[in-house]
Amino acid sequence: MQCVFQADNVVEAELVKGLLEAHNIACHSGGFYLQGAVGDLAASGFAKLWVADDDAGKALALIEDYERGEFKISDDGMASDDAD
Length: 84
What we know:
Blueprint: E1 2-6, H1 10-22, E2 27-30, E3 48-51, H2 56-68
Antiparallel strand pairs: 1-3, 2-3
């Protein structure tokens, strides 16, 4: 397995996990409970996503699209990839 994404928070990790699973990429998320060890400090970067080695290339391409805003919802309520 390969770690393909380190999220800023749990919500972002689960969002990206859903994106990968919607594209038939099995994904494991973890590291969430490590945030509790930080205490009062702002915790980020603990949530990570792992995929099988064979799926890593496809997963990284989708994550790149996500980070570029390819799946952003526009003002008219359409996802940018639906507007074509």
